[in-house]
Amino acid sequence: MFNNLIAPREKSLFFYSPYNFIREVESSKQLKIVSKRLVPYFEKKDSYFQFESNAVVFLLKHLSWDTHFFHKNIFKLEFVLFEESDFKTLSKAVSAFRKFLFAELKADNCFIEIPSEDIQVIQALSANGFHLTETRLTFFKNDLHTFENERFLVRKAFDEDIIPLRNTASKMRNNFDRFHADPLFTQEIADDFLAKYTEESIKGTMADLVLVPDEPGIPVDAFMTLSYNNADSEILGLKIPKMVLTAVSSETCKGWYFKLMSEMLYHVKEIGADYFFTTTQSTNRAVFKGWNKVNGMVGGTTHILSCSSPD
Fold first, then answer.
1. Same domain, 175 and 125
2. Are both 164 and 290 inside the same structural domain?
3. Within 212-295, where are the H helices?
4. Residue 251 sits in which domain range?
5. Cβ atoms within 10 Å of 193's Cβ, excluding its own
6. Taking the model in full, what pTM does it have?
7. Which of helix, strand or coil describes residue 117?
8. CATH code, 120
9. What is the pLDDT of residues 6-61, one digit of tens each?
10. Of 98, 129, 160, which marks where a domain is finished?
């Protein structure tokens, strides 16, 4: 339906692939990752908004899990497509899209994760009620076969670890993540979201592996989660596991971010991973330090822009 709008946007859409930092992968495969996300929107009439007969098309999805958890009607804007558009046209399109969101869809919130390279869309969104709630950096390491370090005792998290790890996730909040930084959410509900996400990770619905300390005298007040990304790995022809979420008690587990990271690196090395990567807030200096210690590299930058109902 909107295929004519994809080719003109290919240069920017390339950066919507979370693996765009992998230079050895040809552009066609990166765009295949993006296309996999695009296709469902072409098939559902309620998943897009057209401005002036396809001059600009907004592809969005309703987040049912988030809506249920936060008791707010939440949408995610995935892509903005257009053939040719100047700032004035884009700005008018975004203004119309916001009216559609709140008047027709009765949305409470809509957000987008957008790469820095898509600057024209960032500017149009920012000029029409979308505000910055988080900036993210991608770190990666691809020389896994050479990784060597002191070993530490860790183990897989079990169901009995859920309560202490929920507590760790909620207590060790990051005021600069998109939930704590967005005025829409209270601190309490943002804390509870991270606790719930941690619980679901241990149960296997949000992660494939959760590592925790297993050293005598060290409480289970730290964790690191991993997703194997099997479906995308198959498309790219590379194993590309991702570190998703980490929380470490500064009181009882000081230094365990790096220890867990080190052991996670051994794990991905053992399973034959080609790349290991994560995304984190651009304010998270502790993570910068950890990745610097293992000679990790920066792969890219994205921004979370959000808008909420004026009511």
1. no
2. yes
3. 230-236, 256-270, 285-293
4. 141-300
5. 19
6. 0.94
7. coil
8. 3.40.630
9. 889 999 999 999 999 999 999 999 999 998 888 776 666 668 898 987 789 999 99
10. 129
